[in-house]
Structures are given as C-alpha cells and as structure tokens.
Specification:
Length: 298
C-alpha cells in the first residue's frame, strides 16, 4: 500500500489483515482490507467505500484519526478496483458495485457484537453506491452514515459527441477501457497525495462506455428520487468547496431534498475533491470525529 509522505501509519494498537470473498453473483473475488484493534471483540465498526479508480488501501490513515471511535475498520475493493477481480473501470450494471458494498457490510456485521454499533462512510462514487444500497435494503442497520464529496453529478459537462459515442460503443463494445483524463493534482492541494497516486499501481484512470452510462443513469436516479434513510440513522455530508471532479451543487441539492430529522452538512471552502487527504485533513477528521461523538452522547 502506498502512503503519501507525511501521512500517519496504522496505530500500533491495530493490526492489518486481508480477506478475499466471493461476489454474490459468483463472478469475481472481492478483496477486503481489515484494520482491527488487537485483543478485543469489536463493538464499534466502520466500513469505508472508496471512489472510482481508487481502492480500500488508500484509507489506512483512517484508523489513526478514528482509533478512539472504532475497534474495527473494513475497506473493500469494489470489483474492477484495487486487488479485486474484474475489468478496471467496468461493470455491466452499477448495481454490481452495490452488491459488492452490501457483501462487505454483511461481512462487517458478522464480526461485530450484536449489541455493537456499525457506521458507514463513503467517498465520491462510493457515495452514489452507498445511497443506492440504502434504498435497496431499506434499513441495513447503520448508526452513522457519512458521505465525503459524493459523486451525484459531474463538475464538467461531457460533450454531446462523446455522450453519443459512448452510447454507440456500449452496444458493440461496452467493456472498452478508455482514460478518464482525471488529473491527480486536482484531488488534493497536498503534492504528496498526487505523487502517491502516480506511484500506486492499484490506482487506475479507466472507464468503459457501459460503466459510464450506467453511472450517469444512477446519479440521475438519485437526484430525482426521494431518498429514504431510516430516522434512526444519522446523516453527515462533508463537501469540498472547490471540487473540480464532482458537483458540490448536486450534492447540496440532494442533501436539501433529503427529509430526515438528523442531518448535517459541512462545506469546506477552497478544498479539492479528496477532503480527507487535504493539507487540512486534521480539521476534516476532527469535524467527523466530533459529529460521531455527539451522536454517541445523544
């Protein structure tokens, strides 16, 4: 795993483990990154769902910042990402990512005491995956649901000619890999993050026509559907104020439309897309930690 220079490692009180699980459709092996507190039965756990092109190994600094809140962390690699099987940047249906996330969620639930608390965190495309997962299951038993720069709309509008080309290619060669053109320097103001992305052989910038079209349809479905999240699940949106990858405005509209008794939104002026990898990540983690603690005391 590639750690950006200056980032904290896994706390000494935690151990790193890996696991491979079979996807629910039997098509792929899905890779799990586990971060477990040594010598305890987990009672507080967090799952972290990554964004498009990245993988769960990029979240190894989360146990450092959240070690007082959780005993167990799980970061799965969705199919076609990281160490999981599958064509890079491709799915026949966006629901396949939803299935992978729910597979990981059930694996996490199986390792936590029945009276324990389980939280769900997701970044970028993982946010869209996670919102659809909640819609599909109704109430998966999440205590705190936290989204970081969820991809519910793109910052740059795709030219019509590319849109048409994608729809044609999807019919004849839907799994054709093409470059996304995403610039690693737009992820964070910290140059060490961009450098780590470039060194990371598990990070990719691929997308296929079939993936792209289903992703766009899924984002539109989220924006136009009344999102239902159980009242017992607290909701937090943490958004980048200068996101050049996904549309912060689209995320804010979804947040405002969300009818929920306990929802919080924090926008960070000037920050790029990966707010938890920014130069001021200590503050972003502090805000998340403070919000989680307030819920535990309520």
């Amino acid at each position: 795993m590639i750690i950006p220079e200056g980032f904290p490692g896994i706390p000494s009180s935690f151990e790193y483990q890996t696991e491979v699980a079979q996807s629910t459709d039997g098509e792929h092996s899905i890779f799990f990154h586990w971060f477990r507190r040594r010598g305890v039965t987990p009672k507080r756990a967090l799952m972290m769902v990554h964004g498009q092109g990245e993988h769960g190994g990029r979240y190894q600094h989360f146990p450092h910042y959240l070690k007082d809140e959780y005993d167990l962390f799980l970061a799965p690699d969705l199919r076609g990402h990281g160490r999981s099987e599958g064509i890079r940047g491709h799915v026949d249906s966006f629901e396949e990512y939803v299935d992978d996330a729910l597979l990981a969620w059930n694996a996490l639930r199986a390792k936590v005491d029945q009276s324990g608390d389980l939280d769900w965190f997701a970044h970028s495309m993982g946010g869209a995956v996670s919102l659809l997962a909640i819609q599909e299951t109704g109430d998966p038993g999440i205590r705190n649901f936290m989204l970081s720069s969820p991809c519910l709309g793109l910052t740059v509008e795709v030219p019509v000619v590319k849109e048409v080309a994608a729809r044609i290619l999807a019919r004849v060669w839907g799994s054709l890999q093409m470059g996304t053109g995403l610039n690693s320097s737009l992820m964070s103001h910290d140059p060490a993050v961009a450098a780590a992305i470039k060194r990371d052989s598990l990070h990719h910038t691929k997308a296929t026509p079939k993936f792209y079209l289903d992703f766009v349809d899924s984002m539109e479905r989220i924006r136009e559907t009344e999102i239902r999240i159980p009242a017992s699940t607290r909701v937090l949106f943490q958004l980048a104020g200068e996101d050049r990858v996904v549309s912060t405005a689209a995320s804010e509209k979804v947040f405002e439309k969300l009818s929920h008794p306990d929802k919080t939104k924090i926008v960070y002026p000037g920050l790029y897309h990966e707010i938890f990898n920014e130069t001021v990540k200590d503050q972003v983690f502090h805000d998340l930690r403070d919000w989680v603690r307030k819920g535990a005391g309520s």
